[in-house]
Amino acid sequence: MNKPYVYITRKLPEDQIKPFKDDWEIGMWESETEPVDKETLKKEARRADGLLTMLTEKIDEELLNDVPNLKVIANMAVGYDNVNVEAAENKGIIVTNTPDVLTDTTADLAFGILMAAARRIVEAADYIRDNKWDNWSPLLLAGSDIHHKKLGIVGMGRIGQAVARRAKGFDMEVAYYNRSRKYEVEEEGLAVYESFENLISTSDFVMSLVPLTNETEHLFNGDVFRKMKKEAIFINASRGKTMDEKALYEAVKGGEIKGAGLDVFEEEPISSDHPLLTLKEIVCVPHIGSASKETREKMMNLSLQNIQSVLKDEEPKTPVH
Ligand code: NAP
Ligand code: GLV
Ligand code: GLV
Predict the structure, then answer these.
(1) 91-120 pLDDT, tens per residue?
(2) Beta bridge pairs of residue 28
(3) To test the ligand 2 pocket, which listed residue (102, 212, 216, 300) has its Cβ within 8 A of the most ligand atoms?
(4) CATH number for 51
(5) Are residues 204 and 232 in the same domain?
(6) Are residues 124 and 254 in the same domain?
(7) How far is it, in rounded angstroms, from Cα 67 to Cα 215?
(8) Separation CA 150–CA 163 (nearest Å)
(9) Cis link prior to 269 (omega < 30° from 0)?
């Protein structure tokens, strides 16, 4: 019997794929850093029984119209807004993601950019690098406190809850808004539920941890930034399109809010001439939420295991629905 063909859209380490080589014929995009081009992806998908994709690949209906053998798309991310799941499911293709294994790592980064924005850590490091440090002075690079301040988390899922745990360790007051109530979170004393309106207008830090969907696109818009406190800092560690980037720029520039910490952007990657980078109150990092070596290895392995299960007619560990 022919071995199933699995195409991987980025170069993964040999030790990750080795265990699967006896069972599959494997094709892999040659670059670790550049995403696969559309034509190659189309051609490979036409032949593949399984696809292992990154969040940089758009798996749309057009592509899914010409995939006669495809049984599984394993997206190496917990977010799957890059995949048209409905179109895939209509064709009987299973879509999987990588929840849980990246929760704590992403929460660490989200809390890290919150701290960096509040305490001006990046600006302060640049200050020394730019040879500006002449003296200690009482208000030199004075930022905002984190402890005993209020954090409002929008999207109280796995990562939201992990961030709330970190915030509790910093003696923060934590509130959340989520489309469904999370009673277990409230019973644990991790966070109190608030309406979206109340949360955004009373929090010192507002953090987006909602998936990108039709309902959450531009959830954080000009109106919302205007309702926030003037001292508020906005953190986005979910998807860039949950915020209106132009409105955020205007809000920080116009002093409607104090600053922001961003791991994600509306169109990625951004380059050094992006307007957000002209504001020192905004800390930008390049979508590195889950980027620890340990966690990225777990995400690779979980994606490969998911493909293995589907190709063996078994339930994958983490299907998206
Ligand atoms: P999750 O456990 O599914 O949590 C998402 C939460 O958002 C759920 O509680 C969900 O509520 C809620 N939600 C969905 N739509 C909503 C809406 N319209 N209004 C209010 N709340 C809504 O997912 P997760 O593992 O925490 O990951 C969250 C997101 O983070 C991912 O989707 C991904 O986009 C992003 N992410 C980013 C990075 C990074 O590198 N920056 C890394 C990992 C993940 P229900 O319980 O009602 O469904
Ligand atoms: C990363 O952004 C993910 O969704 O896993
Ligand atoms: C600062 O370094 C202090 O000692 O307060």
Answers:
(1) 999 999 999 999 999 999 999 999 999 999
(2) 8
(3) 102
(4) 3.40.50.720
(5) yes
(6) yes
(7) 29
(8) 13
(9) yes
